[in-house]
Amino acid sequence: MENQNNVTEFVFMGLCESKHIELLFFFLFLLCYMAVLMGNSTILLTITCSHLIQQPMYYFLCHLSLMDLCYTSTVVPRLIRDLAATRKNISYNNCTTQLFTAHLLGGVEMFILVSMSFDRYIAIVKPLHYVVIMTRQRCNMLIVMAWVVGFWHSVALLFMVLNLPFCGPNQIDHYVCDVKPLLKLVCKDIHFVSILVIANSGMVTVAIFFVLVASYIFILYNLRTYSSAGRHKALSTCSSHIMVVVLFFGPCIYIYVLPAGSENKDKEISVFYTVIAPMLNPLIYTLRNVEMKITMQKVWSQMAHSELM
Predict the structure, then answer these.
(1) What distance in Å separates the CA atoms of residue 243 and residue 247, rounded to the nearest whole number?
(2) What is the pLDDT of residues 128-141, one digit of tens each?
(3) Is residue 139 within 8 Å of 60, Cβ to Cβ?
(4) Exposed, middle or buried: residue 113 (CB in 10 Å: 0-12, 13-18, 19+)?
(5) Do the Cβ atoms of 52 and 131 come closer than 8 Å?
(6) CB 55 within 8 A of CB 11
(7) How many C-beta atoms lie closer than 10 Å to residue 124's C-beta?
(8) Cβ atoms < 10 Å from Cβ of 290
(9) Is the separation of the CB atoms in 56 and 134 below 8 Å?
(10) Would you place residue 5 in the very low, low, confident or very high pLDDT band (cuts 50, 70, 90)?
(11) Model pTM?
């Protein structure tokens, strides 16, 4: 029997039902989105216009900020528009496009965080081999691998959704097109598909998170041999990475490990990795990083001086 798809558009139910709260959320998310744009653009400009781009850690941070900009721009502008709109509708094609793009960028960001962890591992555990191992060629290879893995992850989810029949209700209990809220609208048994989603997204996310946790435990263990000053500097850098990893992976694990039919707070929790994490990442990486703050001042002072000339 062929899958039937009688749905040409979906309607988002949004974050809440109250119009007054939605208006408050409209201004709140607008401010958050502006903060995401300003913060991550500042990181990008500071790194690309300075010597920091030559260092692997900042090279990966540059790509992370770019992913935060792109990922947030895939989700938040439509969310802001829908908060002010009477009807929050999205076409079937646009919905699948948003699903593919969000998971592609999210997957790339996840593996960029893995690359940043690998960079810190080599820098602390094998400092004498760091320059030989973390060459620009290897850094480029890690970024390409992140895009390849993210692409195949999102393609697998896309084909899974395209082969599902939507023939009944079209109201998505969410503010973004994601695989779990879409599964609730499928007019057939989703038990097997839900297991595939958990395997594709949930278990992979959990496995990567535990690898990252293990790597940071090993890094912290090796810091015993460092001097007090060296230990403080390494801890400052690693603590920033750990905070970003927890902010990103924590909500993802909660959302994608649980089955699609279960009652949970998916749409509320997802705000953490769609809005809050991209907004806080620039603050985490700059406020705790003296080198970044000094370089930022130099870059902006040079730009101000060149404008005056």
Answers:
(1) 6
(2) 899 999 999 999 99
(3) yes
(4) buried
(5) no
(6) no
(7) 23
(8) 11
(9) yes
(10) low
(11) 0.89
Count CA atoms closer than 13 A to 241's CA, side-chain side.
29
Q: Which residues, at least 6 apart from 110, have a Cβ–Cβ distance to it below 8 Å?
A: 146, 150, 205, 208, 248, 249, 252
Q: What is the length of the chain?
A: 309
Measuring CA to CA, how many Å separate 52 from each of 58, 65, 69, 242? 6, 14, 20, 21
Amino acid identity, position 59 = Y
Distance CA 117, CA 211 (A): 10
Question: Which token pair is 144?
Answer: 């390409």
Q: Are strands 171-172 and 9-12 parallel, antiparallel or unpaired?
A: parallel
What CA–CA distance (Å, rounded) separates 99 from 164?
14
The tokens for 130 are 């760091």
Angle at 101 between CA 240 and CA 201, to 5 degrees: 65
C-alpha distances in Å from residue 284, one per residue of 39, 54, 166, 185, 187: 11, 21, 42, 39, 44
